[in-house]
């Protein structure tokens, strides 16, 4: 066989502490890498793979774990901060590696998501992460997916070497503005997060151009932002995401709605709404796959509507462009019709090569028409609601409120006119 | 007329030829409720007739036999009707029809094929191997569609050092990789001796599953949507 184990199994308690501490990191995807098996164990599937789902509806793809939760930083929003009273644990690189191999063999996981609190110092932490990644690849001969978190303020050489073993790396921006960072995460700064991202991006380009052997972050970089802990608007957040995609070449930006795990006068007491997080993800998708720009979706100081999804909201603001004819509209326009996704758009463009599509055809093709019918004609016929106001109220997702004598004026007005 | 066939590709093509001029034809494989007064034919696979049909169909659509072999793996009750309609359409249009989504037979076929694809994708994630004393891996599954052997290349590519068997307990067959070759064999019941620390790793996995959940955000419906309950039986984190 190919592995000699020199440690015992990680203890149940340690695993529990280090998982509990890692679980609020939302990144879990295992896609984007096509690393092959080279005589060891594992490979990476370009489309990623989900191995289980937890009762909170999230997928388990990677073993998500911290190397240590013994932090010297004091970020206000984090349960592992130095001033928080929480049980601490640190795992050895071998304990982690063995756990990965044993879980992977049983097809429990697709790979490892390795993060850590900053223990001792940023350099020491990065060294340990690097050591684990290197061991896993070379000693344990593991070729599955490996996502490693970058530690802010660590030596760039350590980060660079880690990137030679990892499929993906990520620095969490956490807070969308410098001001909020200074307030809540005094040891981090925008520079300490954005510079290493930039560094890695340039190194990846150089690595490709020099056609060097091996791989350098085949699945690129991602980041995460906490939403609702600080006053930034959706407009600000989406503009930042857009520039991260366009300028820094990031693969994904994750949004995590704020959950109060620690109490601090600087932080809100209540959890941020999950609807807001959902809307941000929808808008993010529109940026990446539907050809929208952040400017089209929401004003700099504005927030996304909670009642209608961002594509619908955009369409309602641009009613002069609709309805479009299903048999002639270009793909880019079909994708902008509320309710039509990539799959429906594909089916429509395929099918209309052979025949003129009527509404019955669309129904039979299982194109969801609940929203789309207000924005489409099929073979010249329109089946939607003609009055714009009525469309507006039909498309709001919130439950209609029963008017009471005591509702405030705005609510009554909104219920009557459908204006939001 | 009802045409019974045994579910094999040759028999399907034979039945396809036999029933071609019969507008009312129904193709049936497996169990079906017979109503009185319906004429039935039991189709015996005929290699010559099937070969002729195959050649003709391939001339119209060079990928259609792949569609057929996938369709015949489907466990959906409507798959025979879908397949008959789909291949009649190919013969009628004399060209590939896969993009003609306004045709009911194409939609039905597309749905059947997509369900198989979805289950395959599901099982790549949900298969759970047990580690045996010998170091070999054993995974029981009970899929809706006959796809055990389609899982072989995926696991063979990632676990080349471990012999393994994926046992379809419903169809009583196993897809096996012996460390060198892979094959499919009939298998009724398997005697498995587990490795000594198998239970411990399983327990650790269950611990991990419990810890990584955020209880304040319970969304059971979403979980069941992504991971249908019928797959839970062989997943340690879900089985009781």
Write down the overall mean pLDDT of chain A. Answer: 88
Order of helices and strands of chain A: HEEEHEHEHEHHEHEHHHEHHHHEHH
Q: How would you sum up the major sheet of chain A?
A: 6 strands, parallel
- Which radius of gyration of chain A do the C-alpha atoms yield? 24 Å
Report the strand count of chain B: 8
How many helical stretches of chain A?
16
* Strand neighbour order, sheet with most strands of chain B: 4-5-6-7-8
Structural class of chain A: alpha/beta
* Architecture (CATH level 2) name of the largest domain in chain A: Alpha-Beta Barrel
Write the layout of secondary structure elements.
The complex is a heterodimer of chains A (420) and B (240).
Chain A: H1 12-20, E1 52-53, E2 59-60, E3 62-66, H2 93-105, E4 111-115, H3 122-138, E5 145-149, H4 156-163, E6 168-170, H5 178-184, H6 190-209, E7 221-227, H7 234-246, E8 252-257, H8 274-289, H9 294-297, H10 310-317, E9 324-325, H11 331-334, H12 342-351, H13 359-364, H14 369-372, E10 376-377, H15 388-395, H16 409-417
Helix pairs in contact in A: 2-3, 3-4, 4-6, 7-8
Chain B: E1 2-5, H1 9-18, E2 26-29, E3 40-42, H2 47-60, H3 64-71, H4 79-93, H5 104-126, E4 130-131, E5 137-141, H6 152-158, E6 164-168, E7 173-177, E8 182-186, H7 198-212, H8 220-226
Parallel strand pairs in B: 1-2, 1-3, 5-6
Antiparallel strand pairs in B: 4-5, 6-7, 7-8
Helix pairs in contact in B: 1-2, 4-5
Keywords:
heterodimer; A: 420 residues; alpha/beta; TIM Barrel; 16 helices; 37% helix; disordered N terminus; disordered C terminus; B: 240 residues; 2 domains; 5-stranded mixed beta sheet; 3-stranded parallel beta sheet; 8 helices
Describe it.
The complex is a heterodimer of chains A (about 425) and B (about 240). With about 425 residues, chain A is α/β, with parallel strands linked by helices. Chain A has two domains: about 10-220, TIM Barrel (Alpha-Beta Barrel), CATH 3.20.20; about 310-415, no CATH class. Chain A has helices at about 10-20, 95-105, 120-140, 155-165, 180-185, 190-210, 235-245, 275-290, 295, 310-315, 330-335, 340-350, 360-365, 370, 390-395, 410-415; strands at about 50-55, 60, 60-65, 110-115, 145-150, 170, 220-225, 250-255, 325, 375. In chain A, the strands form three sheets. Chain A has a six-stranded parallel beta sheet. A two-stranded antiparallel ribbon of chain A has the order 1-2. Chain A starts with 11 loop residues before the first helix and ends with a helix. Chain B has two domains: about 1-120, no CATH class; about 125-235, no CATH class. In chain B, strands 4-5-6-7-8 form a five-stranded mixed beta sheet, with no helix packed on it. In chain B, strands 2-1-3 form a three-stranded parallel beta sheet. The radius of gyration of chain B is 22 Å and the shape is elongated. Classes of the chains: A alpha/beta (about 425), B alpha/beta (about 240). Chains A and B meet through helix 1, strand 1, strand 2, helix 2 and helix 12 of A and helix 5, strand 4, helix 6, helix 7 and helix 8 of B.
